[in-house]
Amino acid sequence: MTTKSEAIIDRYLEAVAAQLSPETRDDITAELRELILSRLDAREEELGRAPTEAEVEAVLKEIGHPLVVAARYRPGPDSLIGPELFPWWLYGVKAGALVLLAIHAISLFITLISGPRDAGQAIGQAFHSFFGSGLTLIGALTLAGAIMEHYRIRPRWMTEWRAKDLSAFGLSDPMTWGATAGEAVKTRGPALRPVRVSGPSPAGESVFALVGLGLFVGWWLGLLNFPGLQALTLGGETATITPAPIWGVLFAPILFYALAQMGEELFKLTNPGAPRIRALMRIGIAVAGLWLTWTIFQAGHWFTLSADDETGRVVGDWALLNIDRMRTLGDGPRDVAGIALTLSVVFTWVAAIGAVSMVYSIFANAWRAVRP
Amino acid sequence: MSADDELFESMRLELRRGSLVLAVLACLRTERYGYTLRQALAADGLEMEESTLYPLLRRLESQGLLLSEWREEEKRKKRFYVLSPLGVSLLNRLTGEWRAINGSLDRLL
């Protein structure tokens, strides 16, 4: 064999060795070298002469690309996310995309009610932002899935599931949204009877809530960016949204509140049979939520809208909790002050409805905690 | 290749995949090194790519089913494999299982 042929073999084996762990590298490449030389001996016997460089290359090509050959020796999984985890990854992507869609739809709605002449630009920006954050979501879920695959992590909620908890997984199919809220789902096969769904599944809801809360925490910490939540377009001009000092004061409490909710959802997934502990946790979270809502409401000033030299304050006020205000929502002037007033009414009602639902949660969970 | 041929090829590979381990274990009742093992399998009609065979040998060895030894033969060092006692016992059990499956399939086909 020529020196050049030997150099080709060495280069091939170096490329394989670079992909292998130091512990197994020498042993595997020694065996591969022996295989290559055996193949070349056989070829030489067949040809009656030493193989040319091109024939050596052809033998190496038959053995396989160094990356593929080395990958076969790897002890871990062959894929980033294997067939067992893939359905969960896909569900997370779908659920996360729906949450992102909802966030962007709200953001787009706010932008559109504040400047209809720039609707095209606003829609374009919303699409751009949706796809950007969607790709970030897919990347984050893929990373999480790859870690779970590599370390063979299989949480209990993946393996210990009950058929009656599965209905919310239909949420990833928009065709069944109405049905999963309590209606009958028509199955695709004509011979099958419609399936009655009792309500959202705790496991599916928790996965959904964890994705949503995770996105919120990422945004709150500045790791995710939703452009429509930082600026509005008013009559062709960009109006910036400046948060009031209360958000800075409550930065850590709001972060802990979101993390506590994530903790409660994780607990629900991992301990489906502990309703009393979960009820107590929910009471604590609802009390914290009420305190946060009250503190934010008491602060009064929530945001400032600024465009050119005009400013408008988005505020919380008891006087805005008025049905007539809701009826005339959006009828006001399309200037900064008018939009600020519209947002004040919307946010005040959202805060009030949130507070009522938290009070309900406290009572409902207190009953769950004490009932026999 | 037509769609039918592709489907047939993918199902054929799937059918073969499970039986290759059994074939390798059976062939290693006699001590062989990788290259001669591949030749022996091919001679009995079971072609196997090197990139599949060599990692499989390592996996079977790490599972305790094979024993291996580096030895010089024809002026080159080669790694010889042979069934371990555990490999012999597992091969016997798998052979029984294979014959049962084969008998069932024969009746069905």
From TrEMBL, chain A:
Domain of life, source organism: Bacteria
TM spans (from-to): 95-114, 126-148, 203-221, 241-259, 279-297, 336-363
Pfam family, any one: HAAS
Record keywords: Membrane, Transmembrane, Transmembrane helix
Keyword Transmembrane helix: yes
Keyword NAD: no
Protein name per Swiss-Prot or TrEMBL: DUF1700 domain-containing protein
Lineage start: Bacteria, Pseudomonadati, Pseudomonadota, Alphaproteobacteria, Caulobacterales
From TrEMBL, chain B:
Domain Transcription regulator PadR N-terminal: 24-90
InterPro entries: Metal_resp_DNA-bind_regulator, Tscrpt_reg_PadR_N, WH-like_DNA-bd_sf, WH_DNA-bd_sf
Record's protein name: Helix-turn-helix transcriptional regulator
Organism: Brevundimonas aurifodinae
